[in-house]
Amino acid sequence: MTLTIPIVHVVDDDASFRKSLVRLLRAASYEVCEYASAAEFLLARVRCAPGCVVLDIHMPGLSGLDLQEGLSDFDDAHPIIFLTGHGDIPMSVRAMKAGAVDFLTKPVQRDSLLAAVRSAIARDTEKRMTRESQTLLRARFEKLTERELAVFTLVVAGKLNKNIASELGISERTVKSHRANVMAKLQVTSIAGLIASAVQLNFPISET
Amino acid sequence: MANILRQRTSAPSEGNAYRGSVLQAGRVSRRVCNFGILIVAFLLSTFDIAGAGEAKSVLILYSNESFLPANISLGNALVDQMRGATPTRVELFSEFLDLIRFPGDAHQSRTADMLRQKYSNLQIDLLVTVGPQALSFLAGQRDVLFPDVPVVFTGVREDNVTWRELKSATGILMRLDPVPTLDLAMQLQPTTRRVVVVTGASGFDRSWDALARERFGSYEDRLEFTYFSGLPMQTLLENVRGLQSDTVVIFLSGFTDGAGEYFLSADAASLVAGASAVPVYGPYDTYIGTGIVGGHMSTFDQVGRETGRLGLRILAGEAPKNIAPYLPGNGVAVVDCRQLTRWGLSEDRLPPHSDLRFRQPSPWEEYRNLVLSAVVVLALQSVLLVGLLIERRNRVRAELEADETRRELTHASRLATVGELTASIAHEINQPLGAILNNADAAEMLLDSSPDTLDEVRQILEDIRQDDLRASEVIGRLRALLRNREIEFQKIDPHDLIDDVLRLIQREASRREVAIHTTLASGTPMVTGDKVHLQQVLLNLLLNGMEAMSELEHAKKLIVQTRIVGSEMEIAVQDSGPGISKDICARLFDPFFTTKKEGMGLGLSIARTLVEAHGGRIWAEGESGNGVTFRFTVPLARQSSSEASQSAGELTRELTW
């Protein structure tokens, strides 16, 4: 798991406001990137590092809402905090439905802004970590042999070793050996860890 | 003749009233006439059923000739009374026997013959005699002429013996009494010492003389009486001319003078009154108007009327013998007001209920109608005048109110315009405010974190100042636009004005993705006008243009252009929208005409008002599919010659958002 510093992306066409916002976020120890338009942000293709976008709504060209819509195509898009000089309710509803973290109006209280940024970054960081651990687990899971996968399926379904043996037509000892291999490959030490991995991978857990 | 007319007019009669109503009825419409005919037919049939009987014939025998004023007055009243008061048709015949001028049996028998021949074929129901001579005549000829016809006599003195001998007769008596007339004279002229009593030479006159001498006896201790009886007229007149001022004349009657000349009594009275140096009184109402002051009398009108009433009673069936002859009622004092004035006598001394004739109406009475009409006309004129003044005041007030209303509408329109811009304006104000807050927060955090950040903080403070100025500038522009005020003319640079408006609308334009290009006239032409109002006009046109292009797929573009045309600057705003037809162009500036779904239809109407208030014009050019160009003109301010000589080339500046 790679640790990267979160970045706050500020998109606002008003240079003066943008400058002040960047200054504030930097004073709060955030890494900040600034963009004068939605197009400029899209061109920068920033995806990797966790972070969030503080986005103005009224901008020439693509508006903030347009940008939000565009970003929704990407899995790894950053959470968005809207910041507008004049927002109305329909606009905020649209923004929140489309997944915005917050909808703030200028002038914004420092605490509200920083709290929104903090929570957005935490959410993004967690999301990115979950995504990373899942990727890792899936890679391990793919190392299981066909027989080991069958044993894993029955174990997380709550079957006892002897039942699994009779179901697969193998000896109970062989079942134990496969199970040990599965646990080793998935890097878990208990049955509970095994089940947690299955949940994480959305593995179907039967009740039989 | 003048006497006759006067008497007729001074004796209102029911007959006249009757004739008047007939005349009036003749004037009403045919429909009413027809209705009237039906009613008359109905009434006639009713009378027949009621058995009113055949027409009654009444023969009136007058002692004198027909034009004797007394006869005319009495006769008219008598005839009117008999004709007017009964449904029975009364046929009236009159004979003027003229027995005074033609005394003697020969005339009497000729008259009797004439009457016998004339009325032999006629059934006479009633005989009326007027005057003592006619009664005497009838008494003598009655058996021959009208043996059983009832008789009503009138104008006969109570002491006349004839009527007492006549069978089947009754009548109205006449009291000859000079005393009340003398009393009237004394009442009007209490200082009188002498009384001159005038009578003529005829038998009738002499009877008056005798009566007077007898009656005035009781006054002789107080007054000195002189009797001018039967004097020749000339002598009489000379005598009355020389009378002293403490004297009054009582003129009783004068049919014949001492020279044997025949007079109408009234004429004689007129001569005497004309000659007399002192007031003349007389006992007959026929004398009134001849120049006498007045007298106490039963009027001939009154006597005639009473006679008519009595005649009707007889015709209705009452027996004459059951009705004793009677006096027609008390007389009244009758005076000629002109003579009162002439002799300086006071009306106040007259007895109550006096009959005042020829009363000169006071100026008020005489001209009352005229004065009232004049007053009414003046009043109406005053009312009209006041009305016109009020109307004018109301109009002036209405004009002021209209101005006020227009100003309020302009204000309302500006508010509406600002309403449309709210999003942009809020954004514009909140932007610097947000920046200020961020900067302040950042500065605080920087100061908290480390002391080595002073340069940064200094920079932040500078930015804060800038943003603050930016915010107040926006608010200032907004307040200028919203101020409700009258037009203030000043010299303005139109290009500065356009810059201001474009700055205000820039945000809105970008929100609507509209590009604005300006093509401005070169140099610095100044115009005369109200900055805010012209901004309002321009803002309106720009917002309209944007609105017109809202549905557009392709590039939205507004072109603002200025150029100098003669002594005016023309400012044009052209959009690239779908355009409108020419006839809509003409109506665009009408109040409440709108093509927008939620428009009030006031913006352009107010724009026109504002432009026209500047002495300019505003119009729209456009055709479908090609956008619309709004143009308005503002007069150029007076320029110095150097400014005016600058080149007329055009400078193009393009702004695109």
Automatic annotation (TrEMBL), chain A:
Pfam families from the UniProt entry: GerE, Response_reg
UniProt domain Response regulatory: residue ranges: 7-121
Biological process, per Gene Ontology: phosphorelay signal transduction system; regulation of DNA-templated transcription
Domain HTH luxR-type: 137-202
Keyword vocabulary terms for this entry: DNA-binding, Phosphoprotein, Transcription, Transcription regulation, Two-component regulatory system
Keyword set includes Manganese: no
Modified-residue entries (4-aspartylphosphate), positions: 56
Protein name: Response regulator protein TmoT
Organism of this sequence: Stieleria varia
Lineage: Bacteria, Pseudomonadati, Planctomycetota, Planctomycetia, Pirellulales
Automatic annotation (TrEMBL), chain B:
EC number from the UniProt entry: 2.7.13.3
Catalytic activity as recorded in UniProt: ATP + protein L-histidine = ADP + protein N-phospho-L-histidine
Organism: Stieleria varia
Xref: SMART domains: HATPase_c, HisKA
Family annotation (CDD domains): HisKA (cd00082)
Transmembrane segments: 32-53
Protein name from the UniProt record: histidine kinase
Gene coding for it: fixL_3
Enzyme category, top tier: transferase
Sections of the chain in a coiled coil: none
Phosphoprotein as UniProt keyword: yes
Record domain Histidine kinase: where: 424-638
Molecular-function GO terms, alphabetical: phosphorelay sensor kinase activity
